Every structure is written in structure tokens, then in C-alpha cells.
Amino acid sequence: MKKLWLVSVFLLIALPAQASDLEKKLAELAASHHGGVALYAKNLTTGETVSLDSARPVQTASVIKLPLMLQAFEQVKMGKLKLSDPVVLTKDNQVPGSGVLNLMDPGLTLSLKDAITLMMTLSDNTATNVVIDSVGLRPTNEMIARMGLKNTYFYKKVYKKAEGPMPPDQKQFGLGKTTAEEMARVIESIYHCDLGDRELCLQMITIMRNQQYRDMLPRYLEKSDTSEDLSAIADKIGALDDVRSDVALVYTQRGPIIISIFTYNNEDKSWTPENKAEILIGHLARVIVDAWSPEGLAAKVSEPIGTARVK
Predict the structure, then answer these.
(1) What count of other Cβ atoms lies within 10 Å of the Cβ of residue 32?
(2) What is the pLDDT of residues 58-104, one digit of tens each?
(3) What is the rounded CA–CA span in Å between residue 62 and residue 116?
(4) Which pairing describes strands 233-240 and 243-252: parallel, antiparallel, or unpaired?
(5) Could you give the CA distance from residue 169 to residue 62 in angstroms, rounded to a whole number?
(6) Phi and psi of 154, rounded to 5°?
(7) Strand 176-178's sheet: what is its strand order?
(8) What are 144-158's pLDDT values in tens digits?
(9) What is the C-alpha to C-alpha distance for residues 282 and 147, in angstroms, rounded to an integer?
(10) Alpha-carbon dihedral angle through residues 62, 146, 199, 44, given to the nearest 10 degrees
(11) Sign of CA pseudo-dihedral 194, 310, 187, 174
């Protein structure tokens, strides 16, 4: 109880004196959690932001697959890759955890887009390793650096040992590191189509709107069956025993919102829909949407891509 009280005091003290009512509500929810919380949200219509410890470097788990997808599409735009390029499932790339490709026979041929889709919608670990073979970790990290993301890094293949010279913090973060604000900037870049090809940006968002895991950020927001139509939430989740995270572009009736939530050092390490961190993420997302769009999610997303930003 003493540890929980200290976390509560830290979160409330860390808020600026002029903290909004929304930030205070979020801080109170985060302070009640038996674990750490880093959060960043941005209203893309008004420019308003809220944050809790949003610059803290955290483990990404599978959320790091988001910039890998962006780099794949950048290489497609540059003509280095095609989404139709064949990729072959190898035994070496088959690893446990989320996904289905580890159940398939090696030698199976998919398209690069198929592998990206599995990586994002099912968080397929084997598909991720297949995509890494085509796209590369070095180009992904070079893109991350060009974007000015100083605390985001993709270290290695999933369930594989790190290879070559590694940053000294690799063992601390495992697969990847980021901050809540930096990963929000990745998804905002896709929304504004900084890539410069609206069709490719639309394909990335469409893939994310088909996310199959609905127990975190969408938990209390979605009111309809998203298995038959595109969701109004385009997101990427991440999970480890003591980590749960969800980063999303949320289309509301008052415009799009970006919500980036990372929880870590969670006391509840269960793998059930009632995991306390997953429930917390759902509550935090609902509080943000209730504040910025009381009417809730958009019934129909007419403009999934925003206007290009002036560079």
C-alpha cells in the first residue's frame, strides 16, 4: 500500500499546476494502478494534448512493429519493395507467441503485404521476423532517427538473440523501446501521410482498423461488431507478462484523436481479458474520448487521412 501511495503522490505532483480536469482524472486513474503508466493523447482537431510521464522510455513489446510497417511502406514508395513481393516462411523465423504462421509448414509463400497484415492485426511474431528480413532493422532505425525520435529503437527479431553491436540498454528493453509521446508521433505521421502517398497511407490505416485484439483501448468505446466492418479505431497493441500497451488513431464524432498508453511493471501478470492493465487502458481511453467527443466514436469514417503538414 505504501508503494501505491508513493506512485499516487508522484503522479499528482508531476502534473503542472495548470493541469486540466482531464489530466487530473487520468492521473487519479493511473495512480490507482499497481504498476507504471505513461500516456500521451492529442486532439488532432483542436491541437489539445494531455500527458502523464509521456517522455519516459518504456518497453514497447509488439508496439514497435508499427514503425516497421511504416518503413516497409516507405520502401514501397521508393520502389525498393512491392507489397506483392513474395516472402517465404522459413523454419528459422518461426517463433512462439502471438500469431498463426508458427503453426504453418515452412515453405509457405505469402506476399509482403500478407506478412505485414498478420504482423499488425494478429501481432504475429513469425510474420514480424519475415518482414524484418525484407525491410531490415537498420533502415527502420534510420527512419526513426530521421523522424527525430530520440528514445525509440527496434533492437532485434522477436524471440531471437540480439545480433551485432547493440545499444547498452537493449537488455533493459528487450525487443524495443519508445515513449508514449514518440509512438504517438509515429501514428500521427501516418495520419497526416508524411510519406507523401495517400493510397499507401490509407492501406496502413486500413490494416490497423482491422486489429483483432479489442480488450484494451477499444474495450469501452466500441458499441458494434467490428468483425464485419472497419473499426473506428486504428491501433497496435503490445503485451508482455508485466506490460500492456495500445497506441491508436481514434476517429470520433468530433474528429480524430491519437491515444498512446503504455503500462509497465504491472502487478497483474495474468493473460485474461480481465487483466487489470488492459481494463485500465480501456478506462483511460474512455475518459479521453468522453472529454473530447462526448458523442463517442464516428459512425462512419469519411476522411481517414488528414491534410498534409507543411514542412
Answers:
(1) 15
(2) 999 999 999 999 999 999 999 999 999 999 999 999 999 999 999 99
(3) 13
(4) antiparallel
(5) 18
(6) -110, 110
(7) 58-59, 176-178, 153-154
(8) 999 999 999 999 999
(9) 29
(10) 80
(11) positive
Residue 3: C-alpha distances to residues 10, 38, 45, 276 (Å): 11, 17, 38, 17
d(CA 65, CA 293): 29
In this prediction, residue 301 has a pLDDT band, given cuts at 50, 70 and 90, of very high
Give yes or no for a contact between 220 and 39, defined as CB atoms under 8 angstroms apart.
Answer: no
- Pairwise CA distance, residues 7 & 225, whole Å: 37
pLDDT band at 226 (very low <50, low <70, confident <90, very high): confident
19 pLDDT tier (thresholds 50, 70, 90) = low
Q: What pTM value is reported for the model?
A: 0.93
| Radius of gyration for the alpha carbons in the chain, expressed in angstroms and rounded | 19
Question: CB count, 10 Å around CB of 82?
Answer: 12
- Supply 59's cell numbers: 518497453
Q: How many residues belong to the chain?
A: 311
DSSP 310: P
- Look up residue 36 and give its three cell numbers: 507504471
The stretches of the chain forming alpha helices (DSSP H) are 2-14, 21-31, 65-78, 112-121, 125-135, 137-146, 170-173, 180-191, 198-209, 276-292
